[in-house]
Specification:
0% strand
């Protein structure tokens, strides 16, 4: 009996040692990016969701750093004409104290959002090539960090550490970097994966690319299909964000929903098939 136990122990240990490397191998293997647009399209929805709510709450965008058109259909978000432009124009107009009647702190919110988004893109753009973007572990970690950033902003808002009702309060600048930086990392992901037709942020280039597409009416045109889907999903996200804020009266609800969806996207990379090496 004793001899049998001593013989079985190494076998069990050997089996567990064989299992652990296989898990590591699964996490570091490269995923098939053919299916990546599915997750990137959900990101388009999230951009509309968060940007609609953030503009309504703090009069600043977290992703739309230039011009935007996807919010123009919603009176809730268009109390003033400046909502049809992005943070870059907000920043420029503020040098002349325009638009008339706008708060004098909008330049700071816009500037922090722009810089934070650039920082997120910068970090992601440097890290991805070093660790291998299409590795399963890289994509999971990236999206989990993005979800964490949104969750931190949600905690700050829900705890009233950052006010929803006073956009001119300087403490608002604490929450904006978390939302804008994760948006920058999201854009870097889409670009690095090779899907430039899915920028997941500004739709201006998407509209232009659709209009100038010589194969716009062709039956088989995957890029056109993805562009159209991105417009529709961003619009639906903006509608959802507008009605959630109007119905619940709080920005935190939108942020928690966005964080939950981002987290689900992170774990979804575990289900993607591996890249087939030729």
């Amino acid at each position: 009996m004793h001899g049998g136990e001593t013989e079985s122990a190494p076998l069990l240990g050997h089996k567990s040692q064989r299992f652990r490397p296989s898990v590591r191998q699964y996490l570091v293997e490269r995923v098939d990016v053919h299916y990546a647009p599915l997750n990137l399209l959900v990101c388009c929805f999230l951009v509309g969701l968060v940007d609609a709510a953030s503009y309504n709450t703090w009069s600043v965008f977290m992703s739309m750093q230039t011009g935007t058109r996807h919010l123009q259909c919603f009176p809730l978000l268009l109390a003033d004409p400046s909502s049809r432009i992005g943070n870059t124009i907000f920043l420029a107009l503020s040098t002349a104290h325009l638009p008339a009647g706008s708060d004098s702190f909008k330049w700071a919110r816009s500037g922090v959002s722009i810089l934070s988004m650039m920082l997120g893109s910068l970090i992601a753009g440097r890290v991805y090539p070093a660790v291998g973007l299409t590795r399963r572990s890289t994509l999971v970690a990236s999206f989990l960090l993005q979800a964490l950033c949104v969750a931190i902003a949600a905690i700050l808002v829900q705890s009233d550490a950052v006010p929803e009702t006073n956009a001119t309060d300087e403490i608002v600048l604490v929450a904006i970097p978390f939302l804008a930086a994760q948006s920058g990392a999201q854009v870097a992901t889409a670009k690095s994966l090779g899907f430039s037709e899915l920028p997941t942020t500004v739709l201006t280039s998407t509209y232009n690319d659709l209009a100038s597409d010589t194969d716009l009416l062709a039956w088989n045109n995957p890029k056109r299909d993805r562009r159209v889907a991105s417009v529709v999903l961003m619009m639906l996200g903006a509608i959802g964000g507008a009605w959630l804020v109007k119905g619940t009266g709080t920005f935190a609800t939108v942020l928690w929903l966005a964080a939950a969806i981002k987290a689900m996207l992170a774990f979804s990379w575990l289900l993607f098939p591996a890249e087939i090496t030729k």
